[in-house]
């Protein structure tokens, strides 16, 4: 590999509610058990909006971006037998397990204590320090790996090599939108062949839930959204039926589709009280509601106690997936064409256009997933 530059361009959040600013930062250095990626692409995720707007508290200045594909350009120490090598193209999972805490030892990467306590609260990696600095030496917080930059550092526990044949740009979405969807369908819902499914909100994660539900044999699969263009795309991704919740009585329509029963599994993929209510309203007796979307800050949603108790319904939260096991499975499924990342990525932006991308995400006009292509 050619020698690395000493500085890079990055989109920096200086104050919540303000636009991201393209700044020059030092190229980070990987430490023990970490890899340095030259970023190919970074996905734009709805959960970023909560940090950008200040609804979720996070240290600033910060670099966001937690859905990444890239090329390994440097290895930290301790990775001699990891199977990773310089020049490999990889996908990086947003949920970066430390591999050592009680949860990680139990295989519950999705509950990794240091990830939540150090990265999500303090913007650091697991030695308590960030890898990002300005040229003058001021620290910059990292949201996951901070991939809205030309280079980023990722713990080796969270990267998986990309097979030849996968579009390296569009494969950025594998580490969040696809992995989160897989975790919801495979882990949260434990979906069984032939079960009926509703997906409430069909953005980046919801689109992938449709794909996984379809390949795992769900039927019917009902996509629920307020945008006709998203519902049209949902039909191409596996939905057998669509319901526009801005125009129809969702509960009545779902009961018609399911012969009066409701669905056995309802996925909620946005994280607002209205979509929680919709997901619960379409649930059958004995059904499972799987919320996936993150709310803005400390947000609550109402649950009808007697209905939940008498009808034996369950609410099973699902955050991400078990990165070390599930991300390789997702990558393999994409490589075999079981899921199609190219259908989910609808809009590509340059780093200079990052605020335009988030504006589309914020106003709901983004169909599927948008990505930042670092080569543009």
TrEMBL record:
Pfam families: ADH_N (PF08240), ADH_zinc_N (PF00107)
Keyword rRNA-binding on entry: no
Listed cofactors: Zn(2+)
Top-level taxon in the UniProt lineage: Bacteria
Domain spans labelled Enoyl reductase (ER): 17-372
Keyword Endoplasmic reticulum annotated: no
UniProt cross-references to SUPFAM superfamilies, sorted A to Z: GroES-like, NAD(P)-binding Rossmann-fold domains
Listed GO MF terms: metal ion binding; oxidoreductase activity
UniProt cross-references to SMART domains, sorted A to Z: PKS_ER
Alphabetized UniProt keyword annotations: Metal-binding, Oxidoreductase, Zinc
Gene3D superfamilies, per the entry: Medium-chain alcohol dehydrogenases, catalytic domain, NAD(P)-binding Rossmann-like Domain
InterPro entries named in the record: ADH-like_C, ADH-like_N, ER, GroES-like_sf, NAD(P)-bd_dom_sf
Family: Belongs to the zinc-containing alcohol dehydrogenase family.
Stated name of the protein: Zinc-binding dehydrogenase
Organism for this UniProt entry: Cutibacterium porci
